[in-house]
Specification:
Radius of gyration: 24 Å
Number of domains: 3
Shape: elongated
Mean pLDDT: 90
Number of strands: 13
Helix content: 40-55%
Distance between the termini: 86 Å
Largest sheet: 4 strands, mixed
Structural class: alpha+beta
Number of helices: 13
Oligomer: single chain
Low-confidence stretches: 1-9
């Protein structure tokens, strides 16, 4: 096929685009040549940056990612790696699993190696090869879904798989997010806990799922909840609403009723860009809560790097509340 028949200079031709759209934007050398590209044209596109090599023999158009957060860029990169790995394998020989499946389902992950693709197969090799971790396992039909044209383990199954091989914190982050999904039930998770009782990671699965709570509304809130648990703080109530004489004040992330203390995770201001209007509303909200007699502790992303100090700030608020009550 002549160069002028291949579509716009900066894009793939229509035949290859149809293939790419079914595979997360990733195509193989064989698919590109079948659509009319020569090996020389593929090399040219890689050299001038129009395409990028996802893995050996697998390519994708380069996309603009500068406006995204680092974790959003990592998520996109991992999805492409999953499609490239599965595109390199015999059809129906494996399913995306563990945290690779979670990302394809749109469930957030944290604290995992996104350079490594996770696949499960019923036969064949296991272990790590060429950036792909091959697992072996038997899957019921109810534990398999299709996302972006790829066979993946169900959200519930992927949560359990991930919990068996990651930290408690990473497992709870994905479990909390999964429980917020209407298509994930506690009953299915309980069934999978029974199925995985004798897995090497069985105790980790049970611990993470027992702690998981759909009321944690973000990765930051879950991380803070885990931090407080690890530091031995009492268990807070989640998403508690308060009103004063002027009406609704706030729905707070964490409330320690016995200590009369509110704790908030400040990730939302990060995304608001710190605009004056948002800052003023947050300050007013905080002032009204303090006027109701509550101690107030605001936390942010940087506090995860110093968990003991962060827990100390919360304990200091508990102490101030006790002093106020005794003085009264």
């Amino acid at each position: 096929m002549r160069e002028r028949d291949l579509g716009d200079a900066g894009s793939v031709n229509r035949a290859l685009k149809r293939v790419a759209d079914l595979q997360g934007g990733v195509v193989s050398t064989a698919q590109a040549t079948a659509a009319g590209y020569t090996l020389e044209q593929i090399r040219e596109r890689l050299a001038d940056g129009r395409w990028e090599r996802v893995r050996y023999g697998q390519y994708a158009e380069r996309i603009e990612l500068s406006g995204l957060t680092p974790w959003e860029r990592q998520d996109i990169g991992h999805r492409r790696l999953v499609h490239a790995a599965m595109n390199s394998m015999r059809p129906q020989s494996a399913v995306a699993s563990h945290y690779s499946a979670l990302l394809l389902h749109g469930v957030p992950v944290w604290g995992v190696d996104l350079a490594e693709v996770q696949l499960t197969r019923t036969t064949g090799r296991t272990g790590l090869k060429a950036g792909v971790r091959h697992h072996r396992g038997l899957l019921e039909q109810s534990e398999i879904a299709v996302v972006d044209g790829r066979a993946v383990t169900s959200i519930a199954r992927a949560v359990v798989e991930t919990a068996s091989r990651t930290s408690f914190e990473a497992a709870v982050i994905s479990a909390d997010a999964a429980l917020r999904r209407p298509d994930v039930s506690r009953d299915e998770l309980r069934r999978l806990i029974d199925v995985t009782e004798h897995w090497p990671g069985g105790p980790a699965i049970r611990s993470a799922l027992a702690f998981a709570d759909a009321r944690s509304e973000s990765v930051g809130e879950t991380r803070l909840r885990v931090l407080m648990h690890n530091e031995g703080l009492p268990t807070p109530e989640l998403q508690v609403s308060f009103d004063d004489e002027d009406g609704f004040v706030a729905r707070v992330d964490f409330f320690f009723a016995d200590q009369n203390t509110v704790v908030e995770f400040d990730g939302r201001l990060k995304y608001a860009g710190g605009s004056p209007d948002v800052l003023i509303r947050e300050k007013d909200r905080e002032d009204r809560l303090r006027c109701m007699g509550f101690e107030f502790v605001r936390t942010g992303w940087a506090d995860f790097a110093r968990p003991h100090r962060t827990a100390g700030r919360i304990r200091d608020a508990f102490a101030r509340s006790r002093s106020t009550r005794l003085a009264g």
